[in-house]
Design a protein that fits this description.
288 residues, mainly alpha, CHAD domain, 78% helix
């Protein structure tokens, strides 16, 4: 008797069904992808400064994703999550001086009326030299960022052990509420006392909320119980983050440039920095 090949094929397909994608599994895959992105960025020898920027950006995205899972965790997994987050923060901070030096050089190249073309070139050259020296020193201590790449590989393994299937719409809404409350508190403090650390905290929390909303929109289509998509609100978050970012980039450039001898000892360049800072503060106050 001839076997019914189609019936056999159907039997095998039914015996090994493909598990449906859930918000938790999709966000777990996204977190794993960010880990791989960090490792690739740190290994980028051709575009070293851009690789550092991409690595820090992916770390921020990864920490935002982990924040969505936090309300679903029990005490044991919360402790594991804290250890992971500490290691991610340590990795990000180890790259911060290198990224700051690159941002300062880029910001100098975009100065407008605050500097003449010659002053802008002089300031940028001094900051580029500082940036390149900082990167060279860091790579001497950690050739090829090998230890950092090992760290993210270990973190990736730990993240894979977290209970991502527990992340559903209810958990996601709790996480978003918490992020919104943190943004509101940071904004109130920044308005009361507009210091650089408070403005920076406000910006970080705005960015984290935006990243979480974007991740949820990708993992939980409309109608699945996800938090409602507010595209106007997303754009407002992005604009506010960009405004704070421009102000902080100029503050960073001024702070680093004043530590460099040729800039610190040149009255013209010190005047350029002061003018750039006034222009950035005026632009932020005007909502530009």
């Amino acid at each position: 008797m001839q076997r019914d090949k189609h019936r056999t094929d159907r039997k095998h397909r039914n015996a090994d069904p493909v598990a449906p994608a859930t918000p938790g599994t999709m966000l777990a895959a996204a977190a794993d992808g960010e880990c791989r992105r960090i490792a690739r960025a740190l290994a980028d020898t051709r575009h070293r400064h851009h690789g550092i920027h991409r690595a820090r950006k992916a770390i921020r995205q990864l920490r935002a994703l982990l924040g969505l899972l936090a309300p679903a965790l029990d005490a044991t997994d919360r402790a594991r999550m804290r250890r992971i987050d500490v290691r991610l923060k340590r990795l990000c901070r180890s790259l911060s001086p290198l990224r700051d030096a690159h941002v300062a050089a880029l910001t100098a190249s975009t100065l407008g009326d605050a500097a003449s073309p010659a002053e802008r070139r002089t300031l940028e050259a001094a900051l580029v030299a500082h940036r390149d020296a900082a990167a060279e020193e860091a790579l001497q201590r950690d050739p090829g960022f090998h230890s950092r790449r090992q760290a993210i590989a270990a973190i990736r393994d730990e993240i894979g052990k977290l209970p991502w299937t527990a992340l559903d719409a209810r958990v996601a809404k709790r996480a978003i509420r918490r992020s919104r409350h943190r943004v509101e508190r940071a904004e109130r403090k920044a308005h009361r006392t507009s210091t650089s650390p408070l403005l920076h905290r406000w910006r970080r929390r705005l960015r984290r909320l935006r990243l979480q909303l974007e991740a949820l929109e990708a993992a939980m289509p409309a109608g699945t119980g996800a938090p409602p998509v507010d595209r106007a609100g997303h754009h407002a978050l992005k604009r506010q983050t960009d405004r704070l970012g421009r102000l902080q980039d100029v503050q960073l450039m001024c702070r680093l440039a004043r530590r460099i001898g040729p800039v610190r000892d040149d009255p013209r360049l010190r005047a350029v920095l002061a003018a750039a800072m006034r222009e950035a503060r005026a632009g932020f106050a005007a909502g530009q």
